[in-house]
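HOLO CASE FILE
Compound: flavin mononucleotide
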Amino acid sequence: MKVLVISGSPRIGGNSDVLCDQFLLGAKAAGHETEKIQLGKKNLMPCLGCEACAKTGKCIQKDDMEEMLDKLVGADVIVLATPVYFYCMDAQLKMFIDRSLPRYQQIKDKKFYFIVTAADTSHQAMEATLEGMRGYTACLPGAEELGVIYGTGAWKKGEIQNLPVMEEAYAAGKNL
Ligand SMILES: Cc1cc2nc3c(=O)[nH]c(=O)nc-3n(C[C@H](O)[C@H](O)[C@H](O)COP(=O)(O)O)c2cc1C
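Model generated. Tokens follow.
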């Protein structure tokens, strides 16, 4: 399968980015084709809501989204990863999601994993963030949620390294 990981954090090499790598290592070991996109390195503007794409199928903004959208449409498994910012997904991931509007109906029959990282240790406290991501996948035809990787209790960069979720992320990729 083609496994595409969208690492949403602006903190390159941060906690969610590290969990993305763990997931990819597992997926690679299982023989899948893998790719990670780090939104923090991309030129990405927010959706303007102009609806020009409804006629043309393309956004009027010329940035990195068009290429990323091709990859989304072509993937079998999509991992959406975000740090929790004020109990929501971060702005980078939300921009990415909104900018899939031109072709979201072509993001069909995909399997999804969600990765969230937060200082908070409670899984329950992640629900609002996850519901935001589920609001997206509910709009995509045939989307299936395979699971959630909770990188909770990790605040500073690198704190994730000592937590059992490192193994969980690897196993999730391996067992796809
Ligand atoms: C703007 C901002 C808002 C945050 N809000 C929360 C929050 O609401 N709850 C929480 O538990 N942690 C919060 N955090 C902490 C991050 O979620 C935590 O540091 C996480 O590990 C960052 O993941 P990353 O390294 O992948 O960016 C916040 C951090 C920032 C920078």
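CASE NOTES: The pocket of flavin mononucleotide is lined by residues 9, 11, 14-17, 83-87, 117-120, 154-155, 157 (CB under 6 Å). Residues 21 and 36 are 8 Å apart (CA to CA).
CLOSED: yes
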